Fold each of these.
Amino acid sequence: MKFITDKMKALSDETRLKLLCLLSKRACCVCELAEVLDMAQPTITRHLQKLELAGLISVKRCGNFQIYYLDPKDEEAKLLLDFVSERLLKSKELKPLFDRLDKSEKKNEIVQKCKEVVGNELEGRD
């Protein structure tokens, strides 16, 4: 039963739900997520660690950057992510966050290159 309660606890925080929604759009580094949510990087990192421990996301290191992406570790995690994404992506409240994420994507070439590397690695997993 602990395997499901850990996932539910990870999903019980508004900030973590926002992070999952942003990551459902694309892989992101902590600095981007902190900028989009207007929060400190250590705070974002702690939330991301909880999501990672719950088996909902993964992280790849690329130079000085940590790139986070959705990566459900089991069927329960996949079902929960699908459910949450389906409901939250319809929310008008998240549109400003997605707009900020789109703007931040154009800012840093190094981060963009790291995301391309991570994306290529993810494509090879299937």
Amino acid sequence: MSLCEVCWAAEAEHECGMCRRRVCREHFKADAGICSICFENLCEVCGQRLAVDSCVVCGKLVCRRCSEDLQPGIRVCRECLSDIHDRVKRDASLRYLERMIEGSRGPPGRRQKYFK
């Protein structure tokens, strides 16, 4: 008998499909086949991969595939990035993001995909 690696109280009955953590019935999301820890940390855009950060604009948890790292520690989801100009018009405090994108270190073609 092994104990749940989340609560350390109940008997572990399942193995998480993502992290392989052994968990009890209470900490297993059967419909997703993953533990509650992984479930709570899924990307809120795709719902398939673990999040690495949160979007600085909307606050959603995001994975690397569903977001862009503008600078270390500043990640924006693709949904917010696609209409950043409209968001800046509504909220001037986001203007710094526009400047980061325009001054990104990437090649010009990369910058242009965000600004049409």
